[in-house]
Amino acid sequence: MVPEPSEDTHPLDRGRDPSHAALVRGLAAEVAARYGGDLARMRRANGYSNATWVGDGIAVRIAHTPVDMAREAALVRALPREVGHPEILGEGTAEGHGWMVTAEVRGRNLHEAWPTLTPAEQRQAVHQLWARTRIVHDAGSSLGAHVASHGGFVPATLGDAMAAAKRADAALELSSARRARLHEVVEGYFRVAPEVEHTVNHGDLALMNALWDGEVVALLDFEFAVLGPVEIDLCRLVCEARVSEEGRRVDSEAGRAAVEIAARYMDPVHGCALIHGAAVLDQLRDLGIWLALDGTEERAEDWRPCRLLTSLLDDEGGYLGPLLR
To answer: How many separate domains does the chain show?
Structure first.
């Protein structure tokens, strides 16, 4: 049982063992000090798999689990300058936890800035976010050596994906129609994915992984970069623009822009199967994270990944509806 969080527990650490969160914070403070930073003066930035603090001219990112960031650091150093990723000042491990220090870049986290943007600015941000992502895709031949063929929400094998699907089915008690659709969509993705061109995808193309300063100035956090169909990034772009924090579909200029982009870049033959499959795999991963949380009082049907997954399995196709018709 995870101990109860204290009143001063950061919202991003709720659901985590407070003693472990304190360990990670302590390690981050030690790393920040090496580069002239004081964690007490730095602000906590968005992010779930890693803890990040920004300020004093640097950004410190440290993994919550004992994994290193050497592969990600190598990829980042190989990225074209136009991607805008901040300069890496150092990387290493502390008690097994990988860390990376980058230069602080002027701008706000796009997820935090999003509610303050006008509809036109949101549409602009979607186009600019995709433009920087396309730079990564176009450089795939030179970046591929630093990226694996699975990771993030993309399982290594169909068997792994089907195991996640069975766990979701058991937890959510899916109807027979949704269960059949789930298996069909997952199997369809793995069947056609080998038939299309693969490139380096960001793998976690979320608003929180970009910086905004009147325009999108940087694409961040390549820890889940993966070789695969471009639909891996497209499904996330559409979800970010068309779905609210609560998991409700939003009709907006940004959403329409994302759909237009996806329609243009999807594979002309297998695009529907790939973007649908990638979106379902994305929610299966998120649902797995939710299921692993200890002591949550939310009903399963209120979980955002549950709401998104079940809608993707309905005839309308959830937030991907306009692309699946």
So the answer is: 2
Threshold 0.70, pTM exceeds: yes
In the block, residue with structure tokens 């997952």:
186
Burial of 323 (0-12, 13-18, 19+ CB in 10 A): buried
Whether residue 124 has pLDDT greater than 50: yes
In a domain, 305, yes or no: yes
Based on the fold, state whether residues 187 and 47 are members of the same structural domain.
no
Report d(CA 23, CA 171) in Å as an integer: 32
Task: Specify whether 88 is located in the same domain as 210.
Answer: no
DSSP character string of 137-174: HHTHHHHGGG-BS-BTTB-SSHHHHHHHHHHHHHHHT-
DSSP state of 209: G
Tell me the H-state helices in 244-312: 253-265, 271-292, 304-312
Structural domain of 229:
108-324
Decide: 24 and 16 in contact? Cβ < 8 Å: no
Q: Is residue 3 part of a domain?
A: no
Residue 10: other Cβ atoms inside 10 A: 12
Reported confidence tier of residue 6, pLDDT bands at 50, 70, 90: very low
d(CA 63, CA 203): 17
What CATH number is attached to the domain comprising 54? 3.30.200.20
- The answer to whether the Cα torsion of 238, 242, 248, 251 is positive or negative is negative
